[in-house]
Amino acid sequence: MKKRVKSIGFALVLLVMIFQPGGTLGEPEGTEEEVEIIQEEALEEEIKEEEEAEIVEAEQEEEQEEEQEPQESQEDLTGSTIWPGTNVQQKDLKDRYHLTFSEDFSEVMKAIESDYRKEYKLPEEGDIVLKATNWQDIIAVYLLKKQQKGETELFLSGDDQEDLKRVYREMNRVVALEPARILYLSVKEEAVRFQSVSVEALIRQDQSLEQPVYKESEQEFLRAYSSEECRLLCAAETGIEEFLNQSEEEIDGKRQAVRKNAFQAIGKVSYIWGGKSDAIGLDSRWKDKNAFGLDCSGFVSWAFLNGVHENIGGGTTGQWMASVPVTQEEARPGDLVFLGPPTESDEIPHVGIVAGKDRLGGLIAIHCNASDKGVTVEAAYPAGFRYVRRPIIFQ
């Protein structure tokens, strides 16, 4: 609008000067009516030119926006956004870590926590039940004790319950003070927290001593068995969700819920092309593994439906469109991994969920595929995943 006013003003000045003898200001030649007609025509012409210029400018801006959209989309579709880490597979828990559990070990862990809550008269049921988020650290410290006794094949069972309970108590404490790492809950109108010790905190404390207790090899052992990689393998092989418990500082509640529900399906559902389910909890039809199951996108949809009660999109392409690109460094549990981008003619071949990262920062995925005949946990890159994206619901 300012441009139009300036242009009109300039046109008027020119008109006055045109009708001024010698180009100086004064009475214009011609009748007053003629001058007015010329001025009106000039104004109309100027307004018309301005309107045409605005239309051209708007068309150019629209063209630029249309050109930019494919460029942004093209950035998403070119090049892998996932780089390799370690080649993690579920069987590595036994093959690499030499660690196995008894079938009833879940009950051992639950009994230890229940005894601890009863001692402090904390709730056993309800929306908020105090639970440790450092189980993997506890296991690592206890396994080191076993190794120091000369045990090479590490097997955990009910026989370890009393010794493991002592380590649990050493590494967890109920407090009502500010330093906290886990959950808040109200007990007798008092803010109660679970203060937990991590392996890294233990090592830092040990290194501050004049004569450290842990040798370098023992520090490496503790870090390996408390790693995210080992945590995910323990959860996948045992089905014990306590291994996945982490504080809100480490992983927010929505992502935690999606990951836990995804892990529940391990060993419980087979891969069936086109398989979908809107069941809350395990679908009773999955007992017939030859007739009912999930495909890759059906598994992702089911995990999100049960975890956050959200629709993550139908099919692999729908899930791609309901997410935005992130870098591997930015990726968090609950983000999605894809083998490739959508094309005009074909669906994206495969999708999975980020479960965590290995010790090198490589992504570990949980997905439902035909090769493994169901849900499995493994390194994302060797499994063929090349793109990582964040569901819009996590934005």
From TrEMBL:
Record field: compositional bias (Acidic residues): 43-75
UniProt entry tagged with the keyword Protease: yes
Keyword Cell membrane: no
Composition-biased stretches (Polar residues): 76-85
Range of residues in the leader sequence: 1-26
Keywords: Hydrolase, Protease, Signal, Thiol protease
Family: Belongs to the peptidase C40 family.
Region (Disordered): 43-85
Protein name, per record: C40 family peptidase
Pfam families assigned to the protein according to its UniProt record, in alphabetical order: NLPC_P60 (PF00877)
Organism: Aequitasia blattaphilus
Domain NlpC/P60: 251-395
InterPro entries the record matches: NLP_P60_dom (IPR000064), Papain-like_cys_pep_sf (IPR038765), Peptidase_C40 (IPR051202)
